[in-house]
Amino acid sequence: MSIFQAISLGMTILGGIQQKNSANAAARRAQEAADFNANLIERDIDLLGRQRDIINANFLVEQDRSRDAFEEEVQGGVRSGFSYGGFDLSSGTPMDVLRENAREFDYTQKVARFNNSITNMQISDAQEEAELNAQLARMEGGAQAAGLRAQGTRSLINSLGTASQDVYAAGGVGEIFR
Fold first, then answer.
1. 1 half-sphere exposure, CB direction, 13 A CA radius
2. Are 49 and 126 in contact (CB under 8 A)?
3. pLDDT in tens, 14-68
4. Three-class secondary structure of residue 88 per DSSP
5. Is the distance from CB of 52 to CB of 58 less than 8 angstroms?
6. CA distance 37 to 137
């Protein structure tokens, strides 16, 4: 075997090592990209939590505002109207109207609470979905990284196999440097 064959043998092995190193670097970058994407998705989970806080705060404010408005505008208007007409407010039709208004208001408040709870469930579902998507992004990155590492290992094994065939064809290692 000539010096050129020895150089070719070394280059084959070196090429395999280089391919393995490149594949490992690509695997690291693939995992980093997947982690970055997962972190963005997890940021959305925090944003959904803030959205929930805002919705719940608005709900409480609206509940207080509507309670005050009901008492002042609706019930107050009924009392004023019947009082102006000279009706006794302690019994009869005025009390029936006030009670009916109160029942309607309670129903409206219950519907608002139900709608708020549905909104909170939807946000919880969106947070769970985002968490699962983040986990999936990390897993996909891990699978891609594993595939790239395996490809590099395969290249290294192929180059070592090619080099060993060259050595065998030359008659052994001793024959290479004669």
1. 19
2. no
3. 888 999 999 999 999 999 999 999 999 999 999 999 999 999 999 999 998 998 8
4. coil
5. no
6. 7
- The string of pLDDT tens digits covering residues 98-137 is 888 888 989 999 999 999 999 999 999 999 999 999 999 9
Domain ranges across the chain: 3-59+109-176
Q: Return the closest-CA partner of residue 93 out of 106, 81, 104.
A: 81
Whole-model pTM: value is 0.66
Residue type, 142: G
pLDDT category, 174, cuts 50, 70, 90? low
Distances, alpha carbon 2 to alpha carbons 6, 110, 168, 175, 177, in Å: 7, 92, 14, 9, 7
* Structure tokens, 119: 């909104």
Q: Rounded CA gap, 149 and 31, in Å?
A: 11
Q: What is the CA radius of gyration of the chain?
A: 38
The structure tokens listed for 177 are 């440097």
Alpha helices in the chain (DSSP H): 3-69, 76-84, 93-170, 173-176
